Amino acid sequence: MRPYQRRIIADKARLKGWVKSRQVGGSVGGTLDMVVDALQTHNDWNTMSRTGRQAKKLLRKAADHVEAIDFYLRTRLGQKTIIDKISTEEIVLKCGSVMAALPCDANTTVGDTVNWLLDEWALYPNSEIIFGTIKPSIMHGRRLLGLSTPRGRHGKFAIVHQNWRELGAESGWSFHITTIEDAIREGLVLRDHLGKVLTFEEFRVQEIRDIGLEMWLQEYMCTFLDTITAFLSWEIIQNCGVEGQTLVKSPEQLVQLAGPDCELYAGVDIGRRHDLTVIWIISRNPAGQYRTESIVYLTQTPFRTQEEVLVSYLRTGVIQHCCIDQMGIGMQLAENMQEDFGGIIEPVTFSNSSKLAMGEKLRVQMESGNFTFPLDDDIVEDFASVERVITDQGNVRIAATPGHKTHGDYFWAAAQALHGATSFGSGEVAIASA
User: Fold this and answer.
1) Are the C-beta atoms of residues 366 and 240 closer than 8 Å to each other?
2) Residue 425: Cβ-neighbour burial (10 angstroms; 0-12, 13-18, 19+)
3) Where would I find the H helices in 135-250?
4) CA-to-CA separations, 262 to 72, 265, 282, 286, in angstroms, rounded
5) How big is the CA angle at 96 (ends 90 and 102), to the nearest 5 degrees?
6) Burial code of 146-170, b = ≥16 C-beta within 10 A, e = fewer?
7) Is 390 helix (H, G, I), strand (E, B) or coil?
8) CA distance 177 to 183
């Protein structure tokens, strides 16, 4: 068992949930949890899966655990067998505990007083009715473990998980979350068909290429997909990417590029420990098309160095307008740049309305094919992580989906650059100012 599986088994909560990636050993860990509890407490367990066939496969994994434990006890410790009977439908232990496999049918659960293992819970049809029937059967000191890969946010698994996110321990549930990245970090080894070990990055790139970002987020990164409405489609983002275009140009290269038919504008999104600092520089031609000329990204870079890099571009004198995120840690940098470079600097305060306005402006230009950038996997994924969310009050906001290497850092730098290019000299009211 890997650490994340051991944590599940060690957690003795009465109500326990596990949001997990595909292929990380969820059913192996869940069935061992069931077997250990059956041996310790002598209580019965029911396993439920989407179909009867899947339930029997799950019970077979439990049987593997039972047989391994039995072999150890008999051959190493000289004890008697713990097994009374093993079949495709139930396991009966000498201690009296019975583990049975059931399909997801509410009518099969009535009258039982038993523990429950719900496998791939999010796939159950009529999951609220099934759970409502199951729940009373654990009222006399019994337990329930529900594990699944996310499948939208409208089933009972998603609802219970959301309650836990909002209420924590007060929800009555203990939840564990294991993404594919978590699993690899804790010992899961991925291999290709020739046995070569794959890094997380190699696996991620291939899977996104094959199944798309949204399915990657759902199948491997524990994202409840129905909570996401992609702000930009994968196709639009890819169509705006230009293969072979230089990602970073030096200040000297930008000086040679600038001219009457090539105006330059910059947007700066500030980060330090967890987020990137991104300086996104675009050109605008007379036809009103925007081409990304340079994307400078700084990872965990001291603020003084960040300022020096930005100053090296601003001192060229060819950048006509520069929008800088002045929220939080960006405030000092924005103030310093405004003092040193005056009117070309626009400090930007992000709010729901300003982010929506800037984001929509960028989306329109990308959809029309008027905004291009160097094709880069990290940038594409960053743009694709931005989601549109409708709040309970009916308001719309856009934000990056959690669980990514970046948090919309590239997107917001690009949005600020475009805002500067479209508002500078146009009479348009600035979104925010110092």
Assistant:
1) yes
2) exposed
3) 156-167, 180-185, 200-211, 213-220, 234-240
4) 75, 10, 9, 8
5) 25
6) bbbbbbebebbbbebbeebeeeeee
7) strand
8) 10
Of 411 and 110, the structure prediction assigns the larger pLDDT to 411
Look up residue 196 and give its two tokens.
Answer: 């070569």
pLDDT in tens, 287-343: 889 999 999 998 888 888 988 999 999 999 999 999 998 887 778 888 899 988 988
Joined together, the tokens standing for residue 91 give 């396991």
Q: Where are the alpha helices (DSSP H) in 192-330?
A: 200-211, 213-220, 234-240, 251-257, 303-314
Residue 37: which of 130, 135, 114 has the closest Cα? 114
**Domains detected in the chain:** 3-198 (3.40.50.300), 229-423 (3.30.420.240)
| Single-letter code of the amino acid located at 36 | V
CA angle 175, 179, 184 (to 5 degrees): 125
pLDDT tens, position by position, 101-135: 987 777 766 667 899 999 999 888 888 899 999 99
Torsion sign over Cα 374, 380, 382, 386: positive
Place of tokens 């049975």: 100
Per-residue pLDDT reduced to its tens digit, 21-59: 999 999 999 999 999 999 999 999 999 998 888 888 999
Task: Judge whether 149 and 218 are in contact, CB under 8 Å.
Answer: yes
Nearest to 108 by CA among 30, 35, 49, 162: 49
Measured distance CA(152)–CA(198) in Å, rounded: 29
Q: Beta partners for 200?
A: none
Whether 408 shows a pLDDT value over 80: the answer reads yes
Reduced to 3 states (helix: H, G, I; strand: E, B; else coil), residue 158 is helix
The amino acid that residue 331 corresponds to is M
Q: Residue 258's pLDDT is what?
A: 83
DSSP 54-114: HHHHHHHHHHHHHHHHHHHHHHTS-PPP-EEEE-SSEEEETTS-EEEEEES-GGGSTT---
Average pLDDT over residues 163-184: 95
The tokens describing 176, both together, are 């564990």
Name the pairing type of β-strands 396-400 and 386-390.
antiparallel
**What span, in angstroms and rounded, lies between the C-alpha atoms of 76 and 319?**
76
